[in-house]
Please model this.
Amino acid sequence: MLADTVYDILDQANVDISLVLEDFGPSIQQWCPIVPEDFLKDRQNHASYEQPPHEETYRPFLLLCLWLMSRRPCDNAEHITRCQLYRALKQSLAIFQSGTNVNISILQASMLLALYETSHGMSNQAFQTMSASVGILQLLQHSATKSANLVWTLEWIKPSLLMLDRVLTLTSPTHLPLALPSYHTTTQCISYNLAPEIPPHPPLGLASATSARKLHIRSTVALATSPALEYISSLVLNPPPQPNHAYDTATSSLTTCIQALVSKPEPHTWLHCDAIALAFCTNILLQEAQMRHLSSTLPVLAGRPHPEYEKVHLALKYARHMAWDMVKVGIQKINGEGESGEEGVGEVGRLPFAGLCCVVRAGVAVLKTREFYADGDGVEEKEVEGFKRVVGMFAGRWGVGQLYLRTSK
Model:
């Protein structure tokens, strides 16, 4: 049986599944819940997996996917794509998808593989897996025999898919299109059902990655970044004429979102920081893309830059300032250099991948746009060196960091 085979594999590989799940919680589950939290808690409370659980036929397969997510990359980048476990899971998923029965576990496995591909810089493969995940989700939504548990699971997993889609596009060096664009029915459904105000904090001791509050924040930011990411992708395919209202719409959407996130007086949790990081990163990438687009298309008028160029130049300046402030906070968080004197977190694998990836991606964009500010950009070389150390640590855990490591030098 599949379950017996899986547990034999884990046993022979000396895998401590409790450590795997403990690692998955803060790095992934916090910003992109894919499996129920009971799934993680049960396995943490029962370190032995000699007797396979009987709740789901596909549960052992999900454990293998989680094990894959926990594996660190080695110095040879090709080993990530040639990993036999990764290939076996991809083939197994294809077999499951070829069957007549589609269930939530197949969607969860597909999302975990898309996450693995995204976090290790396999953007083309991740986009294809993401697209398949969207198709599986739609099949589940149209199922005539949805249980109450499935309905609830789909409600919290849809924002996770939305967030993962946005993070994939941000990490892609070729600015891939969104698998769940703003006009997609699933995206519109999430937007339609979104409450106008952020729900209150859950009662003490009942905090969860799938709480109404966290689902709201996650959905709001993912929706707000959609116009910007779609616009950036459109510049690659078909640069729009000027004046460009799509750029203004994207900027307005991000500005409103950022103001709502940073104006709250309450302390920011790491999930909230993930949301801020996603918004800040999207903003600087939008302004950088528009700046490069205008630099190659707008004429110089009487020795002065075009007014539209000056507007975007100023917007990029503010975006760079916000992004670099975020980078400095990230450096302090990891190295423990804050005013409170607290120790750094050390192991970047214990931090949420999305938030840290957005911090690194935004920092690289700041360095790449220094060319537009020859009179000084406020970035100190000591800070740059600290940032490069963070990028190196990030690349040691997530393969996609190797791309940023090269471009930050």
Q: What stands out?
A: The radius of gyration is 22 Å. The chain has one domain: 2-407. The longest helix spans residues 307-335.
